[in-house]
Amino acid sequence: MSEAISQEFGDEREPALTREQLKALYEAKKARPPVFRAPQQDIVGRLEELGLTEYALQLDHQGYAVVPPERVSTPDFVERVRETVLRVAKERTGVTHELDRAGNPGRYITDVTGGDSYLLFYLLFEDEVFEEWLENPALGAMIDYMLRGQGQLSSMVAFVRWHNPDITDKLTLNLHSDSPGSPEGVLPLGYDLVCNSALVLTPYTKENGALAVVPGSHRLARQPLPGEGIDRAVPVEAEVGSLILWHGGTWHGAFRRTNPGIRLNVTSYHCHRALKTQEKYQWHVPDEMLKRRSARFARILGADDPMGWGAEGPDFRGRAQYTERTEEASTAQ
Prior knowledge:
four-stranded antiparallel beta sheet, Jelly Rolls, disordered N terminus, single chain, six-stranded antiparallel beta sheet, globular
């Protein structure tokens, strides 16, 4: 036995557990409360309660839906989100961003920074307003519908997009599907492994660089071939404060912005609990954050996910005190 293992588990010359000790261990395990499992929610009933049923039907029919601002949040809350995104953009890039001026990534260069866009990653921990957004009832109900109540937050980012006259492609973001494929190139058809959403922070029009989607493409259950679908792509036009949602299999991209100024959103990408998240949550979420939020908030960030253990084995209880609480009212606006 190695020295490291000897130090962690005790010297190998120590005697094995006695029968009485094994019995006590068994009794202690029996007395331990069962691992919490989130009850199956009345997902359809929640949609009806929030007036979202028609948008869920649109999702299934055309692969995307736009929930209007009055069903999502208040203008004041949306303004808070937008101002916070602009603040974070300045802090990371070193450049003051104005809605009527072109964006600039400044010193914030990532692998996906382009000539007319960049992404602000890992927003959840930047401000409590993003925590509030994650608890938004409309967002939660629609995500639960698409992922059958088995969703977790994979990433929360902001897309910053502007007009660059040197870029002439019709789409500045090529059409693609968010769903992970199989070796055969087939995507899940009966349910989603991933889904996406965007809180609209500036007006979405084709000229403003709106999201581009190919209606009905989610039923093809595959990625588009190079160049395929561009002639069928339509702009998703939406007011500030709207919530755009699309299935993981929906082909989408973005139209080239031709108007001055910038296009902003907050994109909340969710995946099935069985998948690895894009951004680091789970053990990285501080207890202070979980204490001030609901049980659902803790679960959607993986606080009840025991996976990722070492030689010490799993801790199935984990931070169960946060996921087993009675659901309290959301503080989201």
